[in-house]
Amino acid sequence: MLTAHQASEEVTVGPARIRIDYHGSEARDHILEDLDFFIYRLADARISSEVTLATPDIVWNLDAETSVAYDGHTMVFQGTWAPGPLQKAGVAMLALRLEERGLHPFHASAVRYRDRTIMFLGGESNHGKSMGQIEACRRGGSLVSTETTIVDESGTAVMGSHTLFIKKRAQGTERADKAAPERGVEKFFGSTPTWEVLDGPTRVDVVVVPSIDGNYDPSIAEMIPFERQFQTLHSVQNYFLLNELLAPGWPMPLLDTEALRRDRARFVASFSERPYFLIRAATPQVLMDLLDGVL
Question: Is residue 85 pLDDT above 80, yes or no?
């Protein structure tokens, strides 16, 4: 008879913390294997084997028939799962815990540029937030965040990721449709520029929804309230994986509730009161030329 191994770990991002419990016949040094995906998708993440939370947020029972379910607090994985789905679920649970503390992860990069903090929003299409950020930094801007910008209720960016690209995807999250991460940088810049990182919180002044495509004629338009809120909601909803499969045949369990959605919409409406610009351009250099013209 096999002896079941048990382990518990906690992962923290800023003030948010989740607990992951593992039960199974296979011993594991770490439940989640590594934190690369957490650091890329959220911010500086830390792992600890010292448990402080009374109940787990994620439970993995290895020796069981495959399933995944969520009861409103705990997500339970049964059976054999690759590391990737567990990591994606962990990011989503941390995003919920951040929201409970009035902190909202945006799928967006941000820079401090010409005495303003500019957010490049990965909205519905996500076409150029990284390239816009790189070009703004190349022109003297300081980096606030790369993949994710975490914003408080006042609209201040308080933390974020500093990893430009994730170079190795965990098993279960491979994506053949994603271009090699360095290819866009090589095409537009030759090599990745260096930049300074801004130290401390900074209020977001302007939001840019970039749309970079080699076929576009350059254009810039200030967005109306509905457009601003629509694109922003896409950005903050990105962390709850409502449109994703964790594995073939297994969608992400629904983490949302009507109350959470209403509160998120309230925050989105408040945040979207600042200026937003939709900028279409063939290159990030042209995009920033257009933005320079309105700053």
Answer: yes
**Using one digit for the tens of pLDDT, what is the confidence trace for 189-210?**
777 778 899 989 999 999 999 9
> Rounded distance, CA 295 to CA 290, Å?
9
Q: What is the distance between the alpha carbons of residues 98 and 106, in angstroms, rounded to a whole number?
A: 12
Question: Is 82 exposed, middle or buried, given 0-12, 13-18 or 19+ CB atoms closer than 10 A?
Answer: middle
Question: Which residues on adjacent β-strands are paired with residue 232?
Answer: none
- Longest C-alpha distance within the chain, in Å? 72
Integer-rounded Cα radius of gyration of the chain: 20
Q: CA-CA distance, 35 to 214, in Å (whole number)?
A: 35
- At 25 the three-state DSSP class reads coil
Separation CA 137–CA 130 (nearest Å): 11
Residue 57 in contact with residue 17, Cβ under 8 Å? no
Residue 98, pLDDT > 70, answer: yes
Q: Which of 58-62, 106-110, 244-248 has the lowest mean pLDDT?
A: 244-248
* The pLDDT of residue 1: 42
- Return the H-helix or E-strand segment holding 83: helix 83-100
* 7 contacts 28 by C-beta, under 8 angstroms: yes
CA distance 18 to 58: 8
d(CA 180, CA 273): 36
Q: Specify the pTM.
A: 0.90
Tell me the C-alpha to C-alpha distance, in Å, between residue 17 and each of 10, 133, 196, 280: 7, 29, 29, 39
Spatial separation of the C-alpha atoms in residues 87 and 95, rounded to whole Å: 12
Q: How far apart are CA 8 and CA 51, in angstroms?
A: 7
Cβ count within 10 A of residue 74: 15
130-146 pLDDT, tens digit per residue, is 999 999 999 999 999 99
**Residue 124: closest CA among 182, 210, 183, 221:** 210
